Structures are given as C-alpha cells and as structure tokens.
C-alpha cells in the first residue's frame, strides 16, 4: 500500500510496522548554454514536534554520496568529480513511533555548480563586470536542490 506525495500515512500500522519510503531521481539533462549537473545524493527529511513543543528534524542520506569529491572552479565554472545520472533507494524509519505525528519529504541534491550570477560575471570582460561580481556575500558556488511534497503521519487518525 503506497502513499503519494502530499498524502497521509495510515495511523493504524500493523504490529511493529514502520513506514518505508522508495525514492528515485534523474538528473536534469540541461539545455544549450545551461548544462545539467550530476546528482550527488537523495535524502529523506523527517520532522516532528517533541514533547517540549520544539521542532526536530533528522536528515538521512538514502542514495548517492555526499563525499563524492565533486567540486567546481568558481574562476572558470569547470566542474570536476563524479556524480550520478540516476539515483534510487529505500529507507525505513527505524525510529518510528505510532504515537508521534511526523512529516517526511525527500530532497535531491546536485553536485556543486556555479551560481547563475557567477556564470554571467565570467561572460563579461573583467573591466565591464558590475560590483556584485566581487561581492563576497554573494556565493559563487551553490548546490541546487529539489524536494517533494511532504507525506504526513497523523497519529490521531
């Protein structure tokens, strides 16, 4: 029995049953002048409110490799290192508590890449670049992310 993104898990699981999530992602192939980038990892983020009323979250790497050595040179936007065209994995919540409301979503992280403004700055001759090109508060390298709609667990249902 599956639950789609944005859905609610059944609150009456069988004895010792825990939610299991299947995740898959494909890298964006990109387009002329805007290349796609390999995937680095897929994560599951679990959130819940503790008995003290504070929000907690747990981030679990399900597929890929956060330490894949991928880098990008911010002076040329040349990417180095390996990544994945496709990732998939399965994760089971071993800390599941049927008395605790929770929310789950998947996040897909690409390898590092130059920020769009870095690419624009590098396309201009050095003497014609606006001041923002040298602003240290504007990151030159980023990691693009995509995320799913959440899946909710409501213990009162």
Sheet with most strands: 6 strands, mixed
- Helix/strand/pairing category: mainly beta
Global Rg: 20 Å
Helix content: under 10%
- Tally of individual helices: 1
Shape: elongated
CATH architecture classification name of the domain at 18-112 and 144-153:
Sandwich
Structural notes for this entry:
This protein has about 160 residues and is mainly beta. It has a domain at about 20-110 and about 145-155: Immunoglobulin-like. It contains one helix and 14 strands, in the order E-E-E-E-E-E-E-E-E-E-E-H-E-E-E. The strands form five sheets. Strands 1, 5, 6, 10, 13 and 14 form a six-stranded mixed beta sheet that branches. Strands 2-9 form a two-stranded antiparallel sheet. A two-stranded antiparallel sheet has the order 3-4. The chain starts with 7 loop residues before the first strand and ends with a strand. The mean pLDDT is about 95.
Can I get a quick summary?
The protein is mainly beta and 157 residues long.
List the helices and strands and how they pair.
Elements lengths: L7 E2 L10 E7 L3 E2 L2 E2 L3 E11 L5 E10 L6 E2 L6 E2 L5 E7 L9 E9 L2 E2 L1 H7 L18 E2 L2 E3 L3 E3 L4
Parallel strand pairs: 1-14
Antiparallel strand pairs: 2-9, 3-4, 5-6, 5-10, 7-8, 10-13, 10-14, 11-12
Main traits of this protein?
single chain; 157 residues; mainly beta; Immunoglobulin-like; six-stranded mixed beta sheet; two-stranded antiparallel ribbon; 1 helix; 4% helix; 41% strand
């Amino acid at each position: 029995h599956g639950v789609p993104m944005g859905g609610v898990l059944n609150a009456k699981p069988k004895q010792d049953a825990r939610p299991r999530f299947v995740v898959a992602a494909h890298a964006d192939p990109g387009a002329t002048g805007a290349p796609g980038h390999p995937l680095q990892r897929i994560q599951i983020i679990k959130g819940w409110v503790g008995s003290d009323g504070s929000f907690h979250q747990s981030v679990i790497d399900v597929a890929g490799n956060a330490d894949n050595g991928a880098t990008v040179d911010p002076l040329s936007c040349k990417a180095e290192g390996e990544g994945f065209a496709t990732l998939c994995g399965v994760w089971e919540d071993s800390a599941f508590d049927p008395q605790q409301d929770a929310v789950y979503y998947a996040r897909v992280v690409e390898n590092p890449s130059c920020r769009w403004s870095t690419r624009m700055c590098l396309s201009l001759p050095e003497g014609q670049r606006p001041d923002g090109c040298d602003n240290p508060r504007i990151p030159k390298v980023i990691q693009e992310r995509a995320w799913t709609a959440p899946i909710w667990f409501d213990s009162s249902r």
